[in-house]
Specification:
This protein is an alpha+beta fold. The chain contains four helices and seven strands, in the order E-H-E-H-E-E-E-H-E-E-H. 34% of the residues lie in helices and 32% in strands.
Amino acid sequence: MPKELGRKVIVSNRRARHDYSILDTYEAGLVLVGTEVKSLRAGKASLADAFATVDDGEVWLRNVHIPEYTHGTWTNHEARRHRKLLLHRGEIERLIGKTKESGLSLVPLSMYFKDGKVKVELALAKGKKAYDKRQDIAKRDARKEVERAMGRAVKGKYRK
């Protein structure tokens, strides 16, 4: 059977980019059992309440919901269990320092297959306040309005 190549996104956490300011991103491998991989290949997972923690020098992904595999047997996995993330030692040390000193969070942005292996895009993030979210929405709306006006001007349909 040919090996899968490229990147196929399983699930992305769009809410995280709204609730957090992303400072840095990391790509981490994920320790899974067989039925979890089969469930992910079916495109079923949720990162809605997910976060990562550093415990005893290891990074753990918590609250990720991967539903039980429908064709599984008694060997099926738990839907919400702690899953270990695979990172280089230097990256783990850097994450420990950043999360301890400045109160940053580790938030999963997306889960995807990369060359047949499940990976998680993990972000070092700082929580946004309500006024920051409103400012971002206002900037996005202003940018959209400018793009619309430019599009109309190019087409010769510019109105004041």
